[in-house]
Amino acid sequence: MTANRMNTIVAVAGLACCAAGGPFEDRWVYVSRNLSKPEHVQEVAEIVKTAKSVDLNGMLFACGVERWHKWSAEQKARLAEVKRVCDEAGVEIIPIIWSVGYGGYDPAYAAALPCTNVPFTVKGGKAVFPGGDVGEFANAGFDEPPSKPNRAPGWLWTDKPGTVSFIDTDVKAGGTASLRFENYGENPHGHGRACHALKVSPGGRYRVSCRMKTEGVVPASGVLLQVYAKDGASVVGKHASLAATQDWTRVECTFNAGDKSDFRVYAGIWGGRAGRLWVDDFKVESMGCAPPLQREGLSFAVRDARTGAMLRAGVDYELPPQKVWNRKWDSFRVLPGGAAREGAELVVDYWTAAVVASSQRPCCMSAPALYDYYRTSAAAPGARPRHGAPARRMPHAPARDHQGRAPRRADLRVERHARSRAQRAR
Ligand SMILES: [Ca+2]
Q: Phi/psi class of residue 65: alpha, beta or left (left: φ > 0; alpha: ψ in -120 to 50)?
């Protein structure tokens, strides 16, 4: 049984108590299945059956139906079957559509965050991000012999060494040892965690990972890999998504350092009640710097670090292609004969996609393309909207800025000029 399914059934049980205790008109259960697999239909049918047995009358259904125009015939047939099952049970389907928190999978309307004063150096026809340095991450595999029993050298701390956390030389993913957590009840919050300092260069993007193993862990959803800034600000938290018992599995998360260089890596369990958890083999890798998101209203501005002079897109440098927006990225092309000479130090201000929980991209509610997309999906079952324009794909046309202001005509002329120069240069 998946954790998702278990959560749903727990929700059904909880709602049943409410339903029995009061005269609620709307008695719903939340279900999330994208119907990409045949077994999803049976899983939903079982939940509906349970819901009916406790007198629920609605299913709040997250199945990504706003992308109906991209669904396969099989997916559509599965939804028809789910509808039939629900009709038969007298359970109304209330679809969740147009999720703002999860919906920014298209650069045309992904929410953006500013990257300011990111340094680049011109080298061999490219402006290259010179950072990405990762400081030493000592004893990443818990293999250094402890100076005191169960205390891991190199780590800032682990929860209650010898009571909750243990150096384990029998079970390990690599080397000679790992770190094991158990007896979480010894800690008032159910914590079983390890914390390590991490020093990186500002402006960079980094991937932190480790291997984890579980044995009867309750709750498995409490197993996390997290990164905090040294000042305590949460940077990224990743649910390991492991089963209660699962063999060694690599868990990873990615974060942008912004203007900070000192971080804290946390791994372990929060709110643990039972079972054993092992962690081992930590790694920190440079992923270049935050990849640029370019679309209407988002600029990519390059200036000379020494003189402050602005460089011109299409004349001095080439705008990075939009396709880098969710990849490793650390350079962009400078154009021959332009102002960016070999060895020049540049500073770039640009925008990157906002990412939550390592992989979730929210939408930007002021991106005009988002509403084109909404209109398109609302016009389903046809692939095109009955009214209005087709979805926009004009990554460099600044129709509106981030505050919703229309651009000045002069800006539009400069942007058009830069685009045509860039196209000629290719
Ligand atoms: Ca090890």
A: alpha
Q: Are residues 356 and 276 both part of a single domain?
A: no
What is the domain range of residue 298? 112-130+291-425
Q: Are residues 8 and 54 in the same domain?
A: yes
Other CB atoms closer than 10 Å to residue 84's CB: what's the count? 12
Q: Could you give the CA distance from residue 103 to residue 72 in angstroms, rounded to a whole number?
A: 19
> How far away, in angstroms, is 201 Cα from ligand 1 center?
26
101 C-alpha to ligand 1 centroid (Å): 37
Distance 351 CA to ligand 1 centre (A): 39
Is 151 domain-assigned? no
The answer to whether the predicted template modeling score (pTM) of the entire model surpasses 0.90 is: no
Ligand 1: distance of its center to the CA of 209 in Å?
14
Q: Tokens 């990762």: give the residue.
A: 134
Residue 322 is given by DSSP the state G
Domain count, the chain: 3
The full length of the chain comes to 426
Q: Please give the distance, rounded to the nearest whole angstrom, from the Cα atom of residue 144 to the centre of ligand 1.
A: 9
Please give the DSSP secondary-structure letter assigned to residue 256. Answer: E
Per-residue pLDDT 10s for the chain (426 aa) are 444 444 444 444 444 444 444 579 999 999 999 999 999 999 999 999 999 999 999 999 999 888 888 889 999 999 999 999 999 999 999 999 888 888 888 899 999 999 999 999 999 999 999 988 999 999 999 999 998 999 999 999 999 999 999 999 999 999 999 999 999 877 789 999 999 999 999 889 999 999 999 999 999 999 999 999 999 988 888 899 999 999 999 999 999 898 899 999 999 999 999 999 999 999 999 999 999 999 888 999 999 999 999 999 999 999 999 998 988 999 999 999 999 999 999 999 999 999 887 778 999 999 999 999 888 888 765 434 344 444 333 333 333 343 444 444 334 343 444 444 444 444
